Amino acid sequence: MSTTEITSTRGERKTRQGVVVSDKMDKTVIVKVERRTTHPLYRKTVTRSERLHAHDETNDVHQGDRVRIAETRPLSKTKRWRVVEVLERAV
């Protein structure tokens, strides 16, 4: 019987882009992610936003930075995202 390697493929993780609105916690930032959607009744384009807690291992990200975050396993009660890269630094 030949041994075959079973490769487990991990699904694609969700990624979002947003602006850091708070960096007051240790190794955690709050990222505001905005999305544009159409109102179901009035058909007007409205902006919806959500604030996501993201893990920042190096404490390198600061308020006003535009970042890319990716979904990850639960790291705490509210943290389910991690900072992947800084797209633009705040001035």
CATH topology-level name: OB fold (Dihydrolipoamide Acetyltransferase, E2P)
How many domains in all? 1
Secondary-structure element order, N to C: EEEEE
Number of helices: 0
Mean pLDDT: 94
Instruction: Look at the structure and give the CATH class.
Output: Mainly Beta
Helical amount:
under 10%
Number of strands: 5
Radius of gyration, taken over Cα atoms and rounded to an integer in Å: 17 Å
Main sheet overview:
5 strands, mixed, barrel
CATH architecture: Beta Barrel
Shape summary: globular
Structure description:
By secondary structure, the chain is mostly beta strands. It has a single domain (15-88), classed as Nucleic acid-binding proteins (OB fold (Dihydrolipoamide Acetyltransferase, E2P)). The protein has no helices and 5 strands. It has a 5-stranded mixed barrel. The relative contact order is 0.26.
Write the layout of secondary structure elements.
Blueprint (H helix, E strand, L loop, with lengths): L14 E11 L2 E11 L6 E11 L10 E6 L7 E10 L3
Parallel strand pairs: 3-5
Antiparallel strand pairs: 1-2, 1-4, 2-3, 4-5
Notable traits:
91 residues, mainly beta, OB fold (Dihydrolipoamide Acetyltransferase, E2P), five-stranded mixed barrel, 0% helix
